[in-house]
């Protein structure tokens, strides 16, 4: 059993009033050690399931937060479930980490799904637990199957027939009302109708009828009487009501023994390819006082703090916060840093933190394509950032690029090679001063058009062309010393695009993938569903999209205009939260 390094009970930030909350970090520590055997009598038994392996799930900060929130309720027993490391050797079904109880013995199985590629794992967990995969085949005594996570924000439809209820939005403001309604109903059908009618963000797929035209596109998305036509995403107005930070520390994760702290949610820059920049609007910062308390909590159990946000350097008091951590003797790491936000103060903090590697995301090689995607940084920003980082004693750099972006040409792809060579030149120049030569890692990924972005209507580029572009970059940098190129596999980008953009008819194909032991090639070849319809087809601007029933508060006309601006190579300034109504969210 994995042991935590947390040794102290942690006090929490103030929370809204709720029904019967309790829980201490000490109890959660004991749960991780496998020493707790809670009394299940009269309790709501919830299995919090992550459809991937332990080290992946426990690296996810959102999973930590949901676990702690559910454990805070007096009448809830929450235990964790993960995909076994060796799925081919599952014996005795799927069992929880804390008490080794079978997954099918819980009242609720709550899936937290962060990545579309984990959809097949959901079916694996259900099958190994002996739970019918189709929602229509489950009733008492089967557990209620619910799901949340960012995939539920974007497009839950490919797995809709497997899930009884999705919670669309940020969990903190949803859970109280969800559990309040759950306590009142024992009949599944009545419960689901009540959830859909009275819980903001609750989406019950079985209560919506989808119609299709002869061309395969959606013609209607019709709710039953009493059920809202649109499901409004729920968001926390004040992040400081909840402490979004690690619940359990373990060496068996990507961020080994690092105490993660969410410093902000959302991003103001509006990169047109980035779903998080749109579905988490408006961007919000956690208060300085709340973050200082989180640092105190982290220092009680770890000497490493990871600051998490889409754009960490945008936090107004980030330098003060980091200096406070350094004064406590803590090591710092950052989820992301923009090349144009590396102030002298922040560089000094990076130097004191002893970081060995920093990541920068130019995303494209050409200035033209950065205008298309509204990146908001220039080539000179990137090159200056490289010089400053290396001069600050950080020897290694990671550069993130994409291929297959809308309007991209081979000239844009060649610009990636050119920019990387320029980076290497500045890198060497700065390294001579420090007398320490590190390495440049180039990560090359295929662009996947995502829901609720200005590029949601465009198709994935043909995988043959993606392969050619990746090869062009690799060949161009092959002989450049100290530069290593890592690229994704376009055929898996095709699968991710399929899972991201399809409607609920894809559930039949997912079911077949499961039955074929995840042999995608065999399944796609035999399928009556044409996957290219979802992946390679450009959508018309007036088409009903599978995810249109979700209301993020974003005006669709705004997304269309952003798409047109991208084609005109025009940029849009960052969000001015509370002072404009351009996208519609702040209304």
Could you characterize what this model shows?
The protein is an alpha/beta fold and 587 residues long. Among the domains are: 37-167 and 175-232; 553-587, no CATH class. The protein has helices at residues 25-33, 54-57, 61-71, 119-128, 150-154, 175-184, 188-198, 276-279, 288-299, 318-327, 344-353, 367-372, 379-391, 410-434, 463-477, 490-501, 506-515, 520-526, 532-535, 556-567; strands at 44-50, 76-82, 108-112, 144-148, 165-167, 202-203, 208-212, 218-223, 231-232, 259-262, 264-265, 284-285, 304-308, 331-334, 357-363, 396-403, 440-446, 483-487, 550-551. The chain has a six-stranded mixed β-sheet. The protein has a four-stranded parallel β-sheet with strand order 15-16-17-18, with helices on one face. α4 (119-128) links the parallel β3 and β4. α6 packs antiparallel against α7 and α10 (318-327) packs parallel to α11. The chain is globular. Residues 1-31 have low confidence and may be disordered.
């Amino acid at each position: 059993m994995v042991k935590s390094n947390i040794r102290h009970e942690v006090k929490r930030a103030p929370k809204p009033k709720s029904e019967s909350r309790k829980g201490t970090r000490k109890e959660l520590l004991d749960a991780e050690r496998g020493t707790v055997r809670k009394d299940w009598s009269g309790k709501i038994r919830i299995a919090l399931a992550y459809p991937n392996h332990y080290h992946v799930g426990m690296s996810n900060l959102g999973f930590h937060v949901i676990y702690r929130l559910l454990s805070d309720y007096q009448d809830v027993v929450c235990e964790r479930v993960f995909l076994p490391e060796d799925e081919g050797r599952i014996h005795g079904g799927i069992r929880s980490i804390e008490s080794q109880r079978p997954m099918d013995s819980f009242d609720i199985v709550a899936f937290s799904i962060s990545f579309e590629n984990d959809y097949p794992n959901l079916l694996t967990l259900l099958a190994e637990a002996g739970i019918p995969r189709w929602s229509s085949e489950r009733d008492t005594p089967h557990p209620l199957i619910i799901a949340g996570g960012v995939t539920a924000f974007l497009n839950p439809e490919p797995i809709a027939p497997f899930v009884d209820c999705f919670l669309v939005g940020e969990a903190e403001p949803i859970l109280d009302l969800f559990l309040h309604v759950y306590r009142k109903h024992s009949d599944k059908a009545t419960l689901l109708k009540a959830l859909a009618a009275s819980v903001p963000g609750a989406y019950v797929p079985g209560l919506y009828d989808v119609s299709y035209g002869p061309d395969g596109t959606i013609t209607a998305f019709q709710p039953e009487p009493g059920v809202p036509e649109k499901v409004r995403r729920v968001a926390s107005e004040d992040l400081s009501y909840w402490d979004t930070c690690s619940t359990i520390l373990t060496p068996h994760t990507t961020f080994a023994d690092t105490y993660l702290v969410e410093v902000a949610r959302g991003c103001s820059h509006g990169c047109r390819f980035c779903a998080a920049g749109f579905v988490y609007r408006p961007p919000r910062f956690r208060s300085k006082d709340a973050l200082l308390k989180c640092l105190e909590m982290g220092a009680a159990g770890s000497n490493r703090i990871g600051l998490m946000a889409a754009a960490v350097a945008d936090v107004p008091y980030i330098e003060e916060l980091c200096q406070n951590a350094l004064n406590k003797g803590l090591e710092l790491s950052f989820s992301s840093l923009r090349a144009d936000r590396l102030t002298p103060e922040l560089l000094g903090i990076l130097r004191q933190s002893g970081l060995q590697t920093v990541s920068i995301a130019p995303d494209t090689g050409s200035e033209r394509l950065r205008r298309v995607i509204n990146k908001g940084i220039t080539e000179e920003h990137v090159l200056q950032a490289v010089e400053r980082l290396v001069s600050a004693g950080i020897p290694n750099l990671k550069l993130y690029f994409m291929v297959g972006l809308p309007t991209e040409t081979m000239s844009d792809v060649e610009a990636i090679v050119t920019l990387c060579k320029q980076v290497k030149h500045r890198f060497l120049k700065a390294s001579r001063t420090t007398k320490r030569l590190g390495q440049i890692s180039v990560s090359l990924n295929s662009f996947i058009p995502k829901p609720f972005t200005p590029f949601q209507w465009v198709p994935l580029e043909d995988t043959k062309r993606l392969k050619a572009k990746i090869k062009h970059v690799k060949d161009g940098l092959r002989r450049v010393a100290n530069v290593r190129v890592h690229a994704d596999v376009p055929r898996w980008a095709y699968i991710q695009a399929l899972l991201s953009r399809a409607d609920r008819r894809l559930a039949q194909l997912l079911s077949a993938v499961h039955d074929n032991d995840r042999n995608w090639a065999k399944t796609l070849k035999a399928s009556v569903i044409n996957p290219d319809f979802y992946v390679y087809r450009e959508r018309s601007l007036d088409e009903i999209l599978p995810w249109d029933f979700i209301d993020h508060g974003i005006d669709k006309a705004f997304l269309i205009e952003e798409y047109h601006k991208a084609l005109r190579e025009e940029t849009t300034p960052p969000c001015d939260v509370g002072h404009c109504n351009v996208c519609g969210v702040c209304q």
